[in-house]
């Protein structure tokens, strides 16, 4: 593959080298022709006859005296005159050759200037610079993509500020409201006080969950995460995790069905991987229809293990599936704080899975949504 790439690079510049070689041959031919003419003119009698004629006509008016002056003045230096003429011809030819090369650099500089100006059209260079043209245009397209990515990241950051204010304000307003009622209501029954306190506690816990999610994604973005590998029983982890979700399942009358191979041993960072399946199960519960089932399946395939979590709910459109693992992206446009988190759970899950050299994907059709995680059985450093 490497040799093929090297051959391809050679072919990229073959036209350029051929053009320069042809120009060099033409200039060398011109130089040889001019030197022959100069040699014939200076060394032979042609130059002498011209000089003698000029001296006879303008100075001496006597051919013998003009010939004697020529012999004393020019004949003794004719070799030097030839060398000077020869050097002058070479300099002119070399200068012309450099001008042809510098023309290519001017074209490249023009292309770079176009790149800096961020013109809408692709950069066009001479055919012999086709490889350079492709590379400059490739850089141009990369810069455009990065600019678009930066603009989208800036927009997501702005959305985050807006969503953060919305998501934090809602439970906080409820906490303040109910605590204010408790403070101002003197004649309040124990039952009502208990209800207000219970609601305030629920909203405060919701507020804590949101704040923890924002801290979590910040930690994953800014820290150099080191995985601590140990061998675990994945089957038991998934069963234990589903057991902990029983209260959430009961709220929507959901069942959790298992189809897991017994005693699947996996080398991983148990704490971080547990966060992955916690987020996936939480997401399944949030968007699952009531009175349905969540299916958890796991099987070992050669040196990898595949885990699937399925739920019945609204089919997710493809354009949303493509963005579902983005930070701060949520399926519900309304951004209701009562459904799901701040749009960080799946982004965190994706990052953890990829740190384990695995893959995570989502599929949704005919009312069934499936999240699939594939991990190597043996951890990789």
How would you summarize the topology of this molecule?
Layout: H1 2-12, H2 14-43, H3 45-60, H4 63-73, H5 78-117, H6 130-184, H7 190-222, E1 230-233, H8 234-244, H9 246-251, E2 255-260, E3 265-268, H10 270-286, E4 293-301, E5 304-312, H11 318-321, H12 345-355, E6 359-365, E7 368-376
Parallel strand pairs: 2-4
Antiparallel strand pairs: 1-3, 4-5, 5-7, 6-7
Give an account of the 3D structure:
The structure is a single chain. The protein is α+β, with helices and mostly antiparallel strands and 381 residues long. Helices cover 64% and strands 13% of the residues. The chain is built from 12 helices and 7 strands. It has helices at 2-12, 14-43, 45-60, 63-73, 78-117, 130-184, 190-222, 234-244, 246-251, 270-286, 318-321, 345-355; strands at 230-233, 255-260, 265-268, 293-301, 304-312, 359-365, 368-376. The longest helix has 55 residues, at 130-184. Residues 1-8 and 333-340 have low confidence and may be disordered.
Annotation keywords:
381 residues; five-stranded mixed β-sheet; 12 helices; elongated; disordered N terminus
What do the pLDDT scores average to?
78
Q: How much beta, percentage-wise?
A: 5-15%
SSE topology string: HHHHHHHEHHEEHEEHHEE
**Low-confidence blocks of residues:** 1-8, 333-340
Which strand order does the major sheet show? 2-4-5-7-6
Total number of β-strand segments? 7
How is the biggest beta sheet arranged? 5 strands, mixed
Radius of gyration, CA atoms, in whole angstroms: 41 Å
Shape: elongated
Number of helices: 12
Structural category is alpha+beta
| Through-space gap between termini | 27 Å
Helix content: 55-70%
